[in-house]
Write a structure and sequence with these properties.
By secondary structure, the chain is an alpha+beta fold. The protein has 2 domains: 35 residues; 126 residues, no CATH class. It has 2 helices and 11 strands; from the N terminus they run H-E-E-E-E-E-E-E-E-E-H-E-E.
Length: 174
């Protein structure tokens, strides 16, 4: 009987721990969305459909082409140690250009640090897809910029897509 009580207590404790970790992650992302710095990154949309996943736009960011490769066998010189952050310079409209890469966040005024993601032997500053409501692919076809909210620690969340004139795409009218 005691073993059963300990098992139940362990299950309750594990569930509380998982719930706490999930709540912390949600609260962190909500803080970034509310208070993160807006950074616009030029993108190159690829394909707006997936039969298994629904409608989405595969993304590639223009800045990614200038980032070093992760795999020295791919013909690029390996940067040691590998960079953890892209340093982005912003123009007056918030559009980003690559100012460099480093192990640490930028200390120079006017630069924003974004954590790099490793994917397919390359680094990237953002996700490889943007999902949207099924049947809304046409509303996002003109996407040319990704809008990120960037936290002080370099965490970047892609929040919207924008067109050539920097207008947000896909806003629902009620």
């Amino acid at each position: 009987m005691r073993t059963r009580a300990w098992t139940q207590a362990g299950i309750v404790l594990a569930l509380a721990l998982v719930g706490g970790v999930a709540l912390q992650a949600i609260m962190t992302n909500e803080r970034i969305l509310a208070h993160g710095r807006v950074v616009l990154v030029e993108l190159a949309p690829v394909d707006p459909r997936s039969l298994l996943q629904g409608d989405y736009m595969a993304l590639a960011f223009a800045i990614d082409a200038a980032l070093p490769r992760r795999d020295p066998a791919a013909g690029a010189v390996r940067v040691l140690p590998p960079p953890r952050f892209a340093h982005l310079a912003l123009d007056a409209r918030g559009r980003a250009s690559l100012a460099g890469v480093a192990q640490v966040l930028p200390s120079a005024p006017g630069l924003v640090g974004v954590r790099l993601r490793a994917r397919d032997g390359r680094y990237s500053i953002g996700p490889n897809a943007f999902f949207f409501q099924e049947g809304r692919a046409e509303a996002f076809a003109g996407a040319r910029w990704g809008e990120f909210r960037v936290a002080a620690d370099g965490t970047a969340l892609l929040t919207h897509l924008r067109d050539d004139g920097l207008a947000r795409l896909g806003a629902q009218r009620r």
